[in-house]
Amino acid sequence: MCGIIGYLGYREAYPILINGLKKLEYRGYDSSGIAIFYKNGFFLCKTKGRVSELEKKIFSYKIKIKGTIGIGHTRWATHGIPDDINAHPHVSNSNELIMIHNGIIENYHKIKIFLLKNGFTFVSKTDTEVLVNLIEYIKKKNKLSLEESVRISLNEIVGAYSIAIVEKSNPETIIIAKLGSPLALGINEKEFFIASDPISFINYTNNTLYLKDGEMAILKKNKELDLRKIINNHKLNPIIKKLKINLKEIEKGEYKYFMLKEIYEQPKTILDTLRGRLLIPKGIICIDGIESNKDIFINAKSITILACGTSWHSGLIGEYLLEKLTRIPVEVEYASEFRYKNPILEKKDIIIVISQSGETADTLAALKLAKKKGAFVFGICNVVGSSIARNVDAGVYTHAGPEIGVASTKAFTAQIIILVLIALKIGKYRFTINNNFYQSFCKELGSISEKVNNTLKVYNSIKIIAKKYFNVNNFLYLGRGINFPVALEGALKLKEISYIHAEGYPAAEMKHGPIALIDENMPVVIIATKKGCYEKIIGNIQEIKARKGKIIAIVNEGDIQINTLADFTIKVPYIIEELSPLITVIPLQLLAYQIACIRGENVDQPRNLAKSVTVE
């Protein structure tokens, strides 16, 4: 959840660290800090608040910060409230070791008691301060090098981490290590860049090494990279990859917020996700991970989809698609709950895991459990080289590009596109769909990007609705069939960035409880496109109107009947029911965005949230 940055080389470290932290702020923004090292000393500054507050604090010192080695951190609080003291970097009791850390040390309390008994003191409430002092204890007691002390200490802890640590008396060395939390290393001649996400150093290098779980690296000035296994100190050969990121993708450009930019990128990201996979003239869908495991999918008895948050909602849409087109029973589980329920899995059971970042801790843990039990695990993720991508048996990347806004938008629609392609491909293999239906569906897919682009034209009409309802306390979102998960997603977006309580329900469930909430102050967003129980949706609207509820209806262009019933209608292009979530979700994303902006909220950095949930 936190953002780690580090630099060792010949350039001035301060601007690299500050600019890197700004790019990593989507990972955590309740506090931040940096340490810049020079011979036998260091400059350290940390503060509560965003990176801009750190810049102001450093500027107030009116000193020139010199040094070509440094580490920095932007925090999403786990242990200890967000304040100056709990902010990173953390310093050991002797003031000799300085460390930044992402993750959770589960046995930190036991270690802390041990260290207290051995004369150590603590100023923060963090598990990080415990770890840096454990390293110091082992180093002093056994008269070891820093790298050996780090290795031994990490073999003693339980939990997840990515760390970077520097010794004051030997500042030309940075030691980094990873278990369960992402950590990348950018490499140039005579310089190293350390980061939780390589977007923070892409301006300087695209030569990237992704540390694997249980690996540590010793970085020394003017020396070759030294990569080792933590458990046994075995030396490893680093595998360096060329990172392909367009710099424009990680800049806001003309947009005020990344979220709006990413909403408007969806026509392009949908095309990018289809490119090379859907050949409309030939009626061919190409997905290597499915084709090379054809027999597993043809003979599947069931499929389980594992995901969290927005990816879980795309998984629910995937359930509708897969069951309808392949006739394979599908279950969708929260990855965060899956491994705690002692799941029944057999060899070659199919598990599909979905994650934008490919680093979601709960999904990664569920994946590893499924593989341990012998299941076949197929991954859908957006980030090349991520932990999930490296651990699945097969998989497919969405091509949404970097998603910086914390509230996921373009990744969601890209995931749906992939699930549509998978369902069509397997359905064709299993002969559960006929060729006419298949060819017609492929043609509809070819038109979806243009229809999403047309849907974005509702921006101004949604602005009127947002101005009307931005100050209410509650929203209700209703949908039926494949659009029920879209109702869930719309409610989640509103909660995430505007802090208005919202709930998503199947429209038919309204009378089983939520109808009690409806009065003249309750706006109800209802997805009412022509396909999917249209007449029953009209009945639901009538029930809401009878109780003076306010109706915001998403309807197809040309709809007259609901237009006369609703307080507001949002008109979207017609598309077949199976693809309708790609259209109906767009107005809900824009509504959440508009309301949050009117309320004066920071859309890209909602409180208490971070983009990649890399801790449990």
Short description:
The chain is 36% helix and 24% strand. The chain has 616 residues and is of the alpha/beta class.
> Which whole number gives the mean pLDDT?
90
Give the count of structural domains: 3
Contiguous runs where pLDDT drops below 50 for at least 5 residues: none
**Number of strand segments:** 27
Structural class: alpha/beta
Largest sheet: 8 strands, antiparallel
| CATH-derived architecture of the largest domain | 4-Layer Sandwich
- Give the terminus-to-terminus CA distance: 10 Å
- Radius of gyration equals 26 Å
- At CATH level 3, the topology of the largest domain is Glutamine Phosphoribosylpyrophosphate, subunit 1, domain 1
Number of helices: 19
